[in-house]
Design a protein that fits this description.
The chain has 189 residues and is of the alpha+beta class. The protein is built from five helices and five strands. The chain has a domain of 109 residues: Ribosomal Protein S8, Chain: A, domain 1 (2-Layer Sandwich), CATH 3.30.1370.110. Helices cover 28% and strands 13% of the residues. The chain is rod-shaped.
Length: 189
């Protein structure tokens, strides 16, 4: 390509339209001065302590579909179980687990118990189903719930519900009173 020559008129017009020009001392120029976006925290899966003991002291009998179940922690009076069966404590929360696999039910139950304890719930209702569609006469989920609740260190008692609440397909569970709710505040004068 040949170099274009500008006439004096064109050169004067160009200088007039540009104005005063200052030479650049440094030709390294950052094109973007915007700040980097702030990093988002990496989402971590919730680590929920199941509070299930690893092994039971005694073997638990396998339950049949219409068998009722009950448990009371050592050191509690028998009338606590009677009050629980009659609904004396009132229900704070409920969860329906029937239709889930054993692994899914254990995960859901762990989360439910964890958040129930965090929220200070005292009495909860767990629907596990009677196991009428089980291949054998022994319902899988009902027996698992019986074992898991006995293993949980925060469960004080549980029993099958009255027929209008689910009968042998559900349980009322009495949880330990949370430490943050059991201490009464001292009045400050």
């Amino acid at each position: 390509m040949a170099k274009k020559t500008l006439s004096a008129e064109d050169s004067a017009l160009f200088r007039q339209s540009i104005g005063n020009v200052k030479p650049i001392e440094n030709d390294n120029l950052l094109l973007e001065t915007t700040q980097k976006p702030k990093p988002y925290p990496k989402l971590q899966s919730e680590k929920i302590d199941t509070n299930f003991k690893q092994a039971l002291d005694t073997d638990i009998e396998q339950l049949y579909q219409e068998d009722s179940m009950s448990f009371i922690a050592p050191g509690l009076q028998k009338n606590v179980l009677k009050k629980l069966r009659k609904g004396y404590f009132g229900l704070d929360a409920s969860i329906d687990l029937h239709g889930l696999t054993s692994r899914e039910a254990e995960h859901q139950l762990s989360k439910f118990l964890h958040f129930s304890l965090e929220d200070g719930y005292r009495c909860i209702h767990i629907i596990h189903g009677k196991g009428l569609r089980s291949a054998s006469e022994h319902p899988v989920l009902k027996n698992e719930i019986n074992r898991w609740l006995r293993q949980h260190k925060e469960v004080q008692a549980f029993c099958s519900t009255p027929p209008k609440e689910g009968g042998t397909g559900a349980v009322f569970v009495l949880l330990k009173l949370s430490k943050k709710y059991s201490e009464e505040e001292d009045p400050q004068y």
